[in-house]
Amino acid sequence: MTTPEILSGLVRDLHHVAVAVERLEEARLLYEGALGMRASGDVEFVPGQKVNVLVLFAGTQRVELVEPASEDSPISGFLAKRGGGIHHVAWRVDDVQAAIDALLARGVRMIHTTAQPGSHGTSVAFVHPKATGGVLMELVQDAAPAR
């Protein structure tokens, strides 16, 4: 997969693909059971997005199953409009705030103009899909390693 031109020079690689699901436990049966993917831990609640997230791996590739934790979660609206499926593509960046600032300076429409807390200690921001040809993209800065 090539990096979109709009993100050129900002992203290091693909961080994950997020899949919106109605119910994590049902989806988990497919992804872990039938597909043989491995979960990296427990389900995590992300308060800022009002979602529950389960991280799975297929080899080294990360897939996040995202379930709404409330009716006003952005995922609830997505599921109501489109049903389950791919929600967004996430790109790894070294510094999410610097990436936001660079995109804003280029005139790119952002959903978040400041870094937001994500799952597993990450910092994240979403690029508006109207700026990326209809694809919701997330910028992800991994948590600093523990010392």
Structure characteristics:
147 residues; nine-stranded mixed β-sheet; alpha+beta; 2,3-Dihydroxybiphenyl 1,2-Dioxygenase, domain 1
What is the count of β-strands? 9
Task: Please name the CATH architecture.
Answer: Roll
Report Rg: 15 Å
The amount of beta strand, in percent, is 35-45%
Distance separating the two termini: 33 Å
Residues in helices, as a percent range: 10-25%
Order of helices and strands: EHEEEEHEHEEE
Question: Can you walk me through this structure?
Answer:
It is a single chain. It contains 3 helices and 9 strands, in the order βαββββαβαβββ. The chain has 147 residues and is α+β, with helices and mostly antiparallel strands. 20% of the residues lie in helices and 35% in strands. Strands 1, 2, 3, 4, 5, 6, 7, 8 and 9 form a 9-stranded mixed β-sheet that branches. It has one domain: 2,3-Dihydroxybiphenyl 1,2-Dioxygenase, domain 1 (Roll).
Summarize the helices and strands and which ones pair or pack:
Layout (H helix, E strand, L loop, with lengths): L10 E10 L3 H11 L3 E2 L4 E3 L4 E8 L2 E8 L5 H9 L2 E9 L2 H10 L10 E2 L5 E5 L9 E5 L6
Parallel strand pairs: 1-5, 6-9
Antiparallel strand pairs: 1-6, 2-4, 3-4, 4-5, 7-8, 8-9
Task: Describe what is shown at a glance.
By secondary structure, this protein is of the alpha+beta class. The chain has helices spanning 24-34, 74-82, 96-105; strands at 11-20, 38-39, 44-46, 51-58, 61-68, 85-93, 116-117, 123-127, 137-141.
